[in-house]
Specification:
Strand order of the largest sheet: 1-2
Number of strands: 2
Radius of gyration: 19 Å
Strand content: under 5%
Number of domains: 1
Helix content: 55-70%
Number of helices: 8
Amino acid sequence: MKYVKKNWFGILIFVSFVALGSAYIAEYIFNLEPCKMCLKQRHPYYFLIIISLIFFLFKKQKKFLLFIFNELALIYGLFYSLWHVGIEQKIFKGPASCSGTLSQTNSIQNLKEQITSQSIVNCSEISWVILGFSAATINSILLLFILIFNTIFMINNYYVSNKKI
């Protein structure tokens, strides 16, 4: 655990690259088009890479800010990934641009706008599964674990040991 704590930000960068790499492999090698929710779930990983590299380059900055930024990015990602899982399981309703449904209308122009604004990939359809888990479910689990570790390290480093981070 000491190794993980010492190299936490490097591990975050590595895990983020693996998560994004997996998404790009699924998209470009296996031709699995992402839906809008899938694309939003990539944002925290981009942010984690960029912010971790910035703080790595400027080591004199307080790392507590990095922990806070990571927490916010992870909560954002967890929100979208859990929402996506809920959409896949028909628990939640997705955004109109992602659900692939049309609302009733009397106007041809309105119907045309609905059709042209529809996403090509429906967020409620699971495009691939690994060991019974969808990509959104795997992403939710990954983000939850990262959030838990980040929170533990933040509390341990800042509140428990009273060290400057």
